């Protein structure tokens, strides 16, 4: 469905551009947009390689494991059923820790494993449990200590200080994570 919508938007834009006599402006915009996209991707590629390397060092040095040990007691308090399952808690902790450190590629397998483990203890198999919903919210609104993607985009566009957004990102994602947990806990009482 989304493909049809995008096709219609592009098709109508081209037709309107031709009929209003702005075909030349339209073609210049298409060429400029395509070249800008390629430049951005190349710029991001280098920065993402750098940040992935730094994050891999953090992972290998044990920094993510130390963060996981700090998180585990907190997570046991908010996850009622999954908090009792060691395998589920381990996967949840590693997923959130990897996300906090900007290791989204490493976080994905842990997230899938966490959902599988929570599904095993889920009493209603065709409905997500409260812990599954809470995990999804935390995964989406995870606190970001190093927002590597945004830093990379800012660097690709020649920002004077691409990492200046670290503190605002921590505040914004921390607020989102806390409010997400609070809202989940409130909604769990009614649904």
UniProtKB/TrEMBL annotation:
Transmembrane spans: 33-54, 133-157, 163-184
Start and end residues of each Nucleoside transporter/FeoB GTPase Gate domain: 42-154
Keyword tags: Membrane, Transmembrane, Transmembrane helix
Database matches in Pfam families: Gate
Protein's recorded name: Spore maturation protein A
Organism: Clostridium tagluense
Source organism phylogeny: Bacteria, Bacillati, Bacillota, Clostridia, Eubacteriales
Gene that encodes it: spmA
């Amino acid at each position: 469905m989304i493909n049809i919508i995008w096709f219609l938007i592009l098709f109508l834009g081209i037709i309107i551009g031709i009929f209003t006599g702005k075909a030349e402006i339209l073609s210049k915009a298409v060429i400029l947009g395509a070249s800008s996209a390629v430049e951005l991707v190349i710029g991001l590629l280098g920065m993402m390689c750098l940040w992935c390397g730094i994050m891999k060092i953090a992972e290998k040095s044990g920094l993510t494991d130390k963060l996981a040990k700090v998180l585990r007691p907190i997570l046991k308090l908010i996850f009622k059923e999954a908090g009792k399952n060691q395998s589920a808690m381990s996967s949840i902790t590693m997923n959130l820790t990897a996300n906090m450190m900007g290791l989204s590629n490493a976080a994905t397998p842990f997230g899938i494993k966490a959902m599988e483990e929570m599904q095993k203890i889920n009493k209603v198999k065709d409905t997500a449990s409260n812990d599954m919903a809470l995990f999804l919210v935390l995964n989406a609104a995870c606190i970001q200590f190093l927002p590597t993607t945004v830093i990379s985009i800012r660097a690709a566009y020649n920002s004077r200080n691409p990492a200046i957004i670290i503190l605002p990102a921590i505040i914004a994602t921390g607020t989102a994570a806390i409010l997400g947990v609070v809202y989940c806990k409130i909604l769990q009482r009614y649904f």
